[in-house]
Amino acid sequence: MNTFFCSDHSRQIREDIVGSATNYETYILIECPPPWTSEAFNSRWVPPNLKNLVAETNRAKLPIRFLLIANEQSHKTDQTTILIYQKQTGLSNGYQKREFQLANIEKVADFLKKFVWDTVSHWEIASNFTRDILICTHGSHDKCCAKYGNSFYFQATDTVENLGLDHVRIWRSSHFGGHRFAPTAIDLPEGRYYGALNQDSFRSILTKTGDIQCFNQVYRGWGILPTAMQILEKELILRYGWDWLNYKVAYKIVEQSLDNQTMLVELTFENSAGSLCAYQAKLVKDENKTLEVKSSCNAETASVVIKYAVDSMWLTSKKVVSYSL
């Protein structure tokens, strides 16, 4: 019997979790009641045309992430909710949401094909919810998401209710990577990833208050950035505090060594006062934090996970942007 739990092991070896958020142009979240099979889109409630559409999209390597979502109402409602989050262009603080309600999940595949041509606005609904937090509870894919994700989901739902945050929705989600950091979450529309969460750190993230140093333990990174740059963004969060989470950013990789050992990057951001600032930083492979780790409970062998560190960072420009009315 396999008693190995990848999440327990990751904590025991004190793996640094930042730099593990995945980068997608679009998230397509489809309401579908569990249970879900290990490969979520093989589940009994997923119709063949939707399963085929997801498979075709994955084969084409399009930057789209399909996920199944559910909450305690999903078995009881007469419609299927579709949430589509698309990455903003230019200076960005995350994703833009569109929400749709369909009669049932059998109509989702045809809807998504029409959505590409933007011909489906009559199914769009206005929503009072401005924040969707996905918690991976996909235990059939990895047992850590059952062991830690399920209990965290129920506690998180209670925390949101106790705080009176009626603009926040908590969803169960199928696998989105990083189960060795369970319980793990994506906070949309920002697109920030978190792991190794407890209710204290989750409460701070919800309210954007408390000790910002909790990001050293629970922050996986911002999904709009390349993984190596996520360490730089975490350093700027620690420098600027909770206000940083309201800033818009753009990035570029200025130089990169052929062996990926070092890179020069630039992160431009606009703060709440309208100032536009740019930091450049030299990122280097962190030999102390790079390690071999089993990425899941069922992994047969360990994989090398390369970690980066900010070797140096400097402010290259700062100017106040004036907007004419």
Please, how many domains?
2
Strand count: 15
Order of helices and strands: HEHEEEHEHEEEHHEHEEEEEE
**DSSP helix count?**
7
Percent range for β-strand residues: 25-35%
Main-sheet strand order equals: 4-3-1-2-6-5-7-8-9
CATH architecture of the largest domain: 3-Layer(aba) Sandwich
**Alpha carbon gyration radius:** 20 Å
Measured as a percent range, the helix fraction is 10-25%
Oligomerization state? single chain
Low-confidence stretches: none
Q: Give the overall shape.
A: globular
| Main sheet overview | 9 strands, mixed
CATH topology of the largest domain: Glutaredoxin
Global structural class: alpha+beta
The top level CATH class name of the largest domain: Alpha Beta
CATH fourth-tier homologous superfamily of the largest domain: Glutaredoxin
CA-CA gap between termini: 67 Å
- Would you tell me the overall average pLDDT? 89
Note down, in words, how this protein is organized.
- It is a single chain.
- The protein is α+β, with helices and mostly antiparallel strands and 325 residues long.
- It has two domains: 6-219, 3-Layer(aba) Sandwich (Glutaredoxin), CATH 3.40.30; 227-320, Roll (Nuclear Transport Factor 2, Chain: A), CATH 3.10.450.
- Helix content is 22%, strand content 31%.
- It has helices at 6-12, 48-59, 108-116, 143-162, 199-207, 215-218, 230-240, and strands at residues 26-31, 64-70, 80-87, 95-102, 131-136, 168-173, 185-188, 192-194, 219-222, 248-256, 262-270, 275-285, 291-293, 303-305, 308-320.
- The strands form three sheets. It has a nine-stranded mixed beta sheet. The chain has a four-stranded antiparallel beta sheet with strand order 10-11-12-15, with helices on one face.
- β7 and β8 (192-194) form a beta hairpin.
- It is globular, with a radius of gyration of 20 Å.
- The model has no long low-confidence stretch (mean pLDDT 89).
